[in-house]
Amino acid sequence: xxxxxxxxxxxxxxxxxxxxxxxxxxxxxxxxxxxxxxxxxxxxxxxxxxxxxxxxxxxxxxxxxxxxxxxxxxxxxxxxxxxxxxxxxxxxxxxxxxxxxxxxxxxxxxxxxxxxxxxxxxxxxxxxxxxxxxxxxxxxxxxxxxxxxxxxxxxxxxxxxxxxxxxxxxxxxxxxxxxxxxxxxxxxxxxxxxxxxxxxxxxxxxxxxxxxxxxxxxxxxxxxxx
Length: 226
Known about the structure:
The chain is of the alpha/beta class. The chain is built from 9 helices and 8 strands.
């Protein structure tokens, strides 16, 4: 039975792309560069600030200017962390339905805690989560399974009683390595080159409420086997 639902944050739980796109474009314009179209930025958002800097500035971590530009971007983002960020449509209903079923939920993200926690507070959901595991909570990050196993401990569930939902291949790899069920959030920030059907997830979902359907079907099947 599923007792705990764990979500990736960016592109799965919350639609953070508008504010991250604003941060990147603001930083680009400060450096005299043209802003990028939102549709160009959106698929990169789940891969973090490093990927955004690479996209906008064509710089990687070996460039001497990389660290300063990345920090500029993060500073702009921190100051505008919830201007336009919202839960994906139907996520609020999903959370209510999970509460009715006495299924708890939490967040496991590679986003650092100094951004994750203020965002969850701005969304009014910081205290509702059974756990919030950020990218710097442990030495390991996804696709390492350690953050997901830590989330299990905090949530009081065994990995086999958890499902992890994410929009990147590393999410599905981490969940599988942890021994969890996994779902791909097709409504997230997938790139046109991604092939989620090959990631090995238990299922792919088109909207947050599809997660509830999957959980209900799974738990009914398990109850029948019992």
